[in-house]
Amino acid sequence: MDLQHLYINGSKFEANANKYSWVWKKATEKSRYRLFDKITKLLQEINEEIAYTGTMLCINTEYAPEYLKEAADSYAQM
């Protein structure tokens, strides 16, 4: 650790340039997209199981928490 940089909550603050960057941005994005892939696979499995009902859950490349809650609620009601 040098005295030219200060790290707080994943942010890197540089003393000389008054600039900052998010150190863990790439790692969090990779983790996020891995999670989206897992969610997509799970929704595909659920759609295969409930195909007989004629209803399908919408599959996207990215998911909002609100949509996931609605999907879980609708699946629980089946």
Structural account:
By secondary structure, this protein is α+β, with helices and mostly antiparallel strands. Helices cover about 50% and strands about 15% of the residues. The protein contains 2 helices and 3 strands; from the N terminus they run E-E-E-H-H. It has helices at about 25-50, 65-75; strands at about 5-10, 10-15, 20. A 3-stranded antiparallel sheet has the order 1-2-3, with no helix packed on it. The chain is elongated and about 50 Å long. It starts with a strand and ends with a helix. The mean pLDDT is about 80.
| Structural class by secondary-structure content | alpha+beta
> Would you identify the regions where 5 or more consecutive residues have pLDDT less than 50?
none
For the sheet with most strands, the description reads: 3 strands, antiparallel
What proportion of the residues form beta strands (DSSP E)?
Answer: 5-15%
Separate helix tally: 2
Average pLDDT confidence is 80
The radius of gyration over CA amounts to: 20 Å
Give the overall shape, derived from the CA principal axes: elongated
Spatial ordering of strands, largest sheet: 1-2-3
